[in-house]
Structures are given as C-alpha cells and as structure tokens.
Hints:
Elements: E1 2-6, H1 11-23, E2 28-33, E3 37-41, E4 44-50, E5 64-67, H2 71-83, E6 87-90, E7 119-121, H3 127-141, E8 143-152, H4 159-175, E9 192-194, H5 206-218, E10 225-233, E11 239-247, H6 253-260, E12 269-271, E13 292-299, E14 308-315, H7 319-330
Parallel strand pairs: 1-2, 1-5, 2-4, 5-6, 6-7, 8-10, 12-13
Antiparallel strand pairs: 3-4, 8-11, 9-10, 11-14, 13-14
The structure holds 3-amino-D-alanine.
3-amino-D-alanine binds at residues 124-126, 152, 156-157, 207, 317.
Amino acid sequence: MRICILGATGLVGRETITLIARAWPGATLALFASRDQELTLDGKSYEVLGASRLEAQDAPRGDLAFVALDDDHSKRYVPRLVELGYRVIDKSNTYRADPKVPLVVAGVNSSIVDDSVRLVANPNCTTIPLMLALSPLRREFGLSEVTVSTYQAVSGAGIAALDAFLADARDGFQALDRLGLPFKASGYAGNTVPHNGGTDESGFSSEERKLIFESRKILSTPELDISAQCCRVGVAVGHYENAWVTFDRPVDLERVASILSDPARSPFVKHLPGAAGEGLSALHCVQDRDLALVGRIRPDHRDRDRKSVCLTVVGDNLRLGAAANAVRAATRWFPSADRDLQAP
Ligand code: 2RA
C-alpha cells in the first residue's frame, strides 16, 4: 500500500506520519513538501521530495494521499493525485463546501465514505471536537441552537507562528511587568487575539464562518441556528471551546454524561465528570491527543425548560483536529491495524 503525504514537514504532516505507522505499519510512504529535503522525526530520517514531481508524466501511482497544504496548493495537487489513482483526504478549506465532496468527522458521519468516494474533505480543527460532542447528544435530544466561543492554540497558525510564539513566551514574559507592559500587539504570548482573518461583509471571520457552515453540513442540518466567535490565545497546542447548546427536548445531565461516556454512542470522546469537568483545560488534550474532551456540563441558568446546557470541548488541533480525523476517515477505505484509529 503506497501512501503519500503532501505538506509532510508541517506540524500536521508530521503527526500524520506518526499515525500512519500505527494505522498501516507496512505501508510505503512517499513524502512531499515545497522542495526536496530531509526530515528527521522521532530519530528516524525521511526523504522528502518537492511536490512538483507529482506533475511529471512518469509520477508513480498510489493508493492513499493526505494533503496538508494551503488552499492554493491543494487546488493544484489534489486533482493530480486523483488522476494518479490515490484516494485523497484534503485538510484545506478548498473542498469543504463542495456538495460533491463529503466533509467527514470520523465517528460522526464517516459511514458516508465508501468505495465510490475518491476525495474527502477534512473539517476545520475547531469543528471536529465540537461535532464529536454534539452529534451523540443531538441523536438523543434533537438540536436547535448552538453558540460557541473558541480559544485556539497558536499551532493552528502553523510551525512559524508556533516557533515565534515560543520564542516570545520565553523572552517576552521576562520583559512584561504586572500590567503586561511593554505592550506588544503583534505577538500571541500573554495575549488574546481575535481570529479575524478573512472577515467578510457579515463582520465574521473565515474561521467563524467555517465553524458555522461545516457544522450544518456535517450534521445535515442546513437550518441549524449556530453562531461562533473565534480567538487565538497564548497556548501552543489545544483548542478550547465554550458552547451554549439548546436541544429540542429537556435534557437530563446524568443521561448526557452516560451518553458521552459510552464509546459505542460517542466514539473518540472522553467525558470529564463534574461541573468543573475536573478543571478541564486546554492542556488536558496532551494526555488524550486523539479524543474530544468534554466537560464542565451545566444547566444554562437562564433556561426554564431544561433544554439548554453550557459545556466545554477541548481537542488537540494537530491530532484530533487534523491528522487523527483524516487517518480515521481513510480507514473506511483501508481498515486500520489499530482499533483506536478505525472509524465506525
Ligand atoms: C486555526 N483552525 O486554528 C485554524 C487552522 N488550523 O488557525
């Protein structure tokens, strides 16, 4: 089985290499990036080729491809990979809204991936943990309204942003005084920044619009009443999301906990009990990198009908929010040797 990864040297590409070794231990790996180079990962050295080699007449055919590139490069290479016989999981925004391309959260709607599908879009790293938490509850109680506030890790902005943040966090904090001075608007260290790229005439950013339209597409609920505000916080890895959720029917919190604690009903979810959810924090995801952590489930005190709850969802944006979901979706085509990675 020949598997290729485009964007192999990026943060998500590296995690994908690690997971492929678990999912398909005997697979032949072909790694691509912007140029020929060598990649050392976990003490192992890999040859990485320039992705433009895929455009050569004699480029080899293959079975499965993971594309972790920006939208423009994904548009350039995904059609070529399909032409070379690969089944493709694309992690960019390029195909997510395409009605002909399944947008898949493994454990939520991965059953739509069958042998007739050649291309799957991987959702945004904020959408995946939220859908894993809400989908099983929707099946039980119906879902009428969702409001989300996200606190997203810097690694979501890529390896350069992460390295700059880590340097700032080391140096910047030494310089800061108790009032956070000297003020440094450009960095993430010690700051909370609106995720406001691609803001359109609605006033909402592309990140916020993604969470809204992707949730509706994945749950097949085009009318879902959902709104989102997204920001970036000084955290390396781990997206943190506070949600206010109103269901169609009254909810019993014990029933909610039992559903979220049942792997058969809530695959790839870990429920942290108690209103404080054992102090659920972003860094909890480091202990469970491939799971959506759900906790701090409380009745919304404004609700008289017991249909609304507040809850928190945490997910490792590089693993659950990208690499693990993509590998799991691919197990629908190529069953995994590792049960924790096999999509239902
Ligand atoms: C972010 N979800 O966190 C976006 C892309 N990874 O910036």
